[in-house]
Amino acid sequence: MGEVLEGFAAGHLVSGWMRGSHKGPLMPVSIKNSTPTRFDGPPRVIGLGFQLGHGKLHGPRDLFADVSFDNVRKKCLHIADYMRMHGPFEPHRLSEKELEYTTLPTVLSSLKGRLEKAE
Prior knowledge:
By secondary structure, the protein is of the alpha+beta class. The protein is 23% helix and 21% strand.
């Protein structure tokens, strides 16, 4: 199980922020801390562990409640602060082609011909 959980100790950048239009660090959290309220993020992941013994399922255990994930949580919060400082622009916001459900492509389309490329 340790090999599987280790993949969550880095705070990888993922698409999300629960609105599907921004990038943020995937933060491993306990069930208690799984409710994202800051701009619906940063993206969170929980881990529940079960064990089968004597024909019975035991658990769940809250795998990310472990203090050994405290450092990556702090790192994720720092990364989230930095990413959010960019405002509604890349790299925090996904590129136009990656956006899922937002009005931005429609707005940009309506402005076509009125925008100029920066030099």
